[in-house]
User: Which sequence fits this backbone?
């Protein structure tokens, strides 16, 4: 990612300040699928609202983002809402590839960050039986644009997983899928 892009994201996150914890959008109506313990990876975590929410549900979370300002806001949020030590904040430029860890996760979440080149790595990061939760901007119900998924993109990209929930519309696509046991 270009330094100017990182600076832009830092400015945006600084202006927004610390957020509040919240579940991933794709899990609306499907919270029963979420593991109550284990390890989670939050890809492009932003200000950490999902990471902190997951920590509050008993998961140990690795939260990855390119923006130091976003990670600082997440670290502040977690100290307000959760016991320390449940979230590890990792600064990484996802444009350079997926963070190199040999770990597998019981849950991988990616909310509103779309890079189809990372889809295989996200699926590979799942432990057997692990849950993938993805929300991206979509062309479905929107005028389109460079950062929007084509219709059916998520189900095609993650065809190796069991799709548990999928919806597209109003400019968003959501997928909840499980890795083979």
Assistant:
């Amino acid at each position: 990612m270009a330094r100017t892009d990182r600076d832009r994201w830092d400015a945006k996150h600084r202006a927004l300040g610390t957020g509040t914890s919240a579940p991933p959008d794709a899990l609306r109506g499907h919270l029963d699928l979420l593991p109550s313990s284990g390890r989670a990876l939050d890809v492009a975590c932003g200000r950490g609202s999902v990471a902190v929410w997951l920590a509050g549900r008993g998961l140990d979370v690795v939260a990855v983002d390119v923006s130091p300002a976003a990670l600082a806001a997440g670290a502040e949020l977690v100290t307000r809402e959760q016991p320390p030590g449940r979230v590890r904040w990792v600064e990484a430029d996802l444009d350079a590839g997926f963070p190199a860890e040999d770990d597998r996760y019981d849950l991988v979440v990616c909310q509103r960050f779309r890079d189809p080149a990372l889809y295989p790595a996200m699926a590979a990061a799942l432990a057997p039986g692990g849950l993938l939760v993805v929300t991206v901007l979509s062309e479905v119900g929107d005028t389109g644009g460079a950062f929007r998924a084509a219709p059916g993109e998520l189900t095609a990209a993650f065809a190796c997983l069991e799709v548990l929930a999928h919806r597209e519309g109003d400019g968003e696509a959501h997928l909840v899928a499980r890795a083979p046991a």
